[in-house]
Amino acid sequence: MAVVLCMAPWFSAAAVLPQLRAEWNLSPQAGSWLALAVQLGFVVGAVGSALLNLADRVPSRVLILVGALVAAGANAALLVINDGSLAFVLRGLVGAALALVYPPALRAMSAYFTTGRGVALGVMVGALTLGSASPHLVNGLGGAQWRTVIAVTSVLAVLGGVIASRVGPGPHRSPAPPFRPAQAWQALSARGPALATLGYLGHMWELYAMWTWFALYYSGVLRAAGGTDVTRVSALATFAVVGIGALGCVLGGVLGDRWGRTRVTELSMWLSGASAVALALLVSAPPGVILAVSVFWGFWIIADSAQFSTIVSEVADPAYVGTAMTAQLALGFTLTAVSIALVPALEPRIGWPGIFLLWSVGPLLGAVTMRVLRGTPEAARIAGGRR
């Protein structure tokens, strides 16, 4: 519940980006940078957190509370400014603050579970998914009033931080290790964590780019079909496409624990990449058909996400699990910044079909990487020997 609420500010500006561009007279490029700012801020925050070993040395509930309060404050500050440059800084601060929420939350959950960890982290990432989707629901139900979206998501983040502050340390949390900045790299340089991280990068290549730009894409689909009330309908559609991923995360956790993590991550990326290819081919399909394929895509695009973190928690040094998770997330979100930024630069040239084909490359390569990991000796430590 804390993560659902704390992560609400993540996509708050992206959910109302057309309104912000109109009110602040932002160019399309400036709007793209505003959407990208959170990713860049998260990378900075995650890198700093990994170097300082914060997720392993500071209680998770303290980090999450601080991150939630800072994110809420920076998000709410958008209500009193009228400048795109300052908005970029504030959105970057939101991302940096949420780097104190997401990795420590994964670390905290892993400290409560040894068996069933895949389901546990799947529920946690499902919560992240719901939190990320919530601004689109608020937007769809609130008549596209961007101030309402910003205000509500800021209040939700504060409430999430308060809830997190009530969560004690798990029974399997390791004692605070020595301060070792180099551990941020060493935690991922071993073969097992390195392969898991490469698979994670393939997954992340498409995930946040799709989450960020789907509302814009589907708005164009609706307009081309002569639809009405496009803003509201596209917001609700985006909530469905992103939000359905919460169920995918849970199923991914169940399959990861029972069937094997490398298997479920590989399957998920094959299906996700195939969905992107299918949408590239459905250029003239009715909006309902496109939405149905997109919902299927939204289910599988995130179903594997928690399992990458779970694999790292099982094969990394137990004393620095939080640092390893944070470093993995930092690399992943660095890549998302690239894939998000490429869309406005390439879409006018190659169109949305070309964008979807480009996105499909990541999960297809990631699936191959997880097949390689399955054949290594380190795989015997994953999911109790179920690889």
From TrEMBL:
Entries under PROSITE patterns matching the protein: MFS (PS50850)
Organism: Deinococcus rufus
A Pfam family that the UniProt record links to this protein: MFS_1
Transmembrane portions of the chain: 32-55, 62-81, 87-106, 118-138, 144-164, 233-256, 276-303, 324-346, 352-373
Domain Major facilitator superfamily (MFS) profile positions: 1-378
Membrane topology according to the record: Multi-pass membrane protein
Subcellular location: Cell membrane
Keyword field: Cell membrane, Membrane, Transmembrane, Transmembrane helix
Protein name: MFS transporter
